Amino acid sequence: MKYLELKPGDRIRKLIEEFVQPGLMPLGFKLLTSELTFKRKIGNFTQEIYFAKNQRNFGNTIVCFWTILSVKSNYYVKWHEKTYGLKPMNEFVESWYDNHIKNWNSEYWNSGQYDLTEFDNVKLMNDLTKNILTIGIPLLDKVSDWENAADDLMERQRFGFISKIFDFYILAGKKKKAIESLKIVEEYFNSVDNVPKERLEEIERRKDYLQHLAN
Question: How does DSSP classify residue 145?
Fold first, then answer.
């Protein structure tokens, strides 16, 4: 157990600075002072590794946290506003909780959270750092590419994000794949009940966009 004298939030930051930061800094990530988040810019994408703390953390009784990995793009937000005249649903390209990522397995989890009160802190932090570097970073890099991001959403049938799928293909210069994805998802929506009207409106907006391109 390390840094038992610190409050839970300070203890978590101290361990992340000691174990995780040395592996991420050479890759261009910077740890924010305002929150427990590493960030780096890759072209039109911003990669983030955020450490969320359990709100019930207390003394040395509960000291838990988990990792959220995200790729965002302000470029996409501006492109969407210029193209459609309104903001997209959000700036995220993709985001994952660590315990939802296939292959991100850890023996140092307690109910899906890293628990500093239950496990050897050095082993836990080394395991976390290894997962971030060998699984997390490649995942962030994979979707920091418009076509790959759209392919990934299609492969996992995340059809609720059809607006992003279509837009990402357009941004990648893959018009045919954009049209095909729109067709596949529209056919799927026609086969199920209770599709949110927002999703149908998004499809119609993309059809209008394609019609505008044709003219």
Answer: S
- Angstrom distance (rounded) from CA 94 to CA 165: 11
DSSP for 33-95, please give it: SSSSEEEEEETTEEEEEEEEEPTT-BTTTB-EEEEEEEEE-HHHHHHHHHHHSS--S-SEEEE
Tell me the domain boundaries of the chain: 8-75+90-142, 146-214
**Tokens 């954009």, residue?**
178
How confident is residue 200, by pLDDT bands cut at 50, 70 and 90? Answer: very high
Using DSSP, state whether 30 is helix, strand or coil.
strand
**Which residues, 6 or more positions from 49, have their beta carbon under 8 angstroms from its beta carbon?**
24, 29, 37, 38, 67, 68, 69, 132, 136, 140
pLDDT, tens only, 145-176 = 999 999 999 999 999 999 999 999 999 999 99
